């Protein structure tokens, strides 16, 4: 199922293999938390180039890869555009409430 | 108040200065998550030497310092024994639910 929904991107982690260490390693980075916050605020997939983050393209590609391999985001192509979505259901099954509390904490901190 | 309750240990962060980045930097480490889990399972302070962690004493001292400076634990002396407790109320006020969901996630992962 993973390969089917992911299209050309084949290294998504299976839902049952999502590991807390990988999730925390991913979310300890403020740029990656910002990406996740922006995804949480959107009800549709966001293209990699459309995020409000101040990093180079290659750094951004690295951040998306870390998030994808941790099981936090799913990436799929629509034509030539790579769309990102949060894997909310998979994360909530693995670690209930974790994603939402971290997003909420990041929002609180961003808003001062 | 901080200085008073902390006794001889003077670098506890004030409740209002607890920062998400510091909390996540602290909890991204599995040994520190284990310390926090053990504190969450106890209803009283635990001496530094009484934790079930497989690290040297100097490494352990470092871990406690990171947790203390992040605002996750409070340390106080009782005689010559340094007792550790979780700063649950302060953390819950700063980032509601964050500590509990990470402890819960760590338990789930530890129990496989």
Fold blueprint:
The structure is a homodimer of 112-residue chains.
Chain A: H1 2-6, H2 20-27, H3 30-40, E1 46-47, H4 57-70, E2 73-78, E3 81-86, H5 88-94, H6 98-110
Antiparallel strand pairs in A: 1-3, 2-3
Helix pairs in contact in A: 2-4, 3-6
Give structural notes.
2 copies of one chain form a homodimer. The first copy, chain A, starts with a helix and ends with a helix. The longest helix of chain A is centred in the middle third of the chain and has 14 residues, at 57-70. Chain A has a single domain (4-111), classed as Arc Repressor Mutant, subunit A. In chain A, strands 1-3-2 form a 3-stranded antiparallel β-sheet. With 112 residues, chain A is of the alpha+beta class. The model of chain A is unreliable at 1-6 (pLDDT under 50). Chain A is built from 6 helices and 3 strands, in the order αααβαββαα.
Q: From the structure provided, what is the oligomeric state, counting identical versus distinct chains?
A: homodimer
Tally of distinct domains of chain A: 1
Helical residue percent band of chain A: 40-55%
Q: How much of the sequence of chain A is in beta strands?
A: 5-15%
What's the alpha carbon Rg of chain A, rounded to whole Å?
A: 13 Å
Give the number of DSSP strands of chain A: 3
Mean pLDDT of chain A: 91
> How do the strands of the widest beta sheet of chain A line up side by side?
1-3-2
Q: What is the terminal separation of chain A in angstroms? A: 41 Å
Order of helices and strands of chain A: HHHEHEEHH
Largest interface: A-B, 22 and 22 residues
User: Main sheet of chain A?
Assistant: 3 strands, antiparallel
CATH architecture of chain A: Orthogonal Bundle
**CATH class categorisation of chain A:** Mainly Alpha
Choose one word for the global shape of chain A: globular
Judged by helices, strands and strand pairing, the structural class of chain A is: alpha+beta
Count up the helices of chain A. Answer: 6
* Unreliable parts of chain A: 1-6
């Amino acid at each position: 199922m993973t390969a089917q929904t992911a299209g050309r991107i084949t290294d998504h982690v299976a839902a049952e293999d999502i590991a807390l260490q990988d999730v925390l390693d991913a979310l300890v980075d403020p740029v990656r938390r910002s990406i996740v916050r922006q995804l949480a605020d959107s009800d549709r997939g966001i293209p990699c180039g459309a995020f409000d983050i101040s990093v180079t393209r290659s750094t951004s590609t690295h951040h998306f890869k870390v998030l994808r391999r941790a099981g936090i985001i799913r990436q799929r192509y629509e034509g030539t555009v790579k769309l990102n979505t949060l894997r909310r259901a998979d994360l909530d099954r693995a670690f209930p409430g974790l994603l939402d509390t971290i997003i909420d904490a990041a929002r609180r901190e961003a808003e001062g």
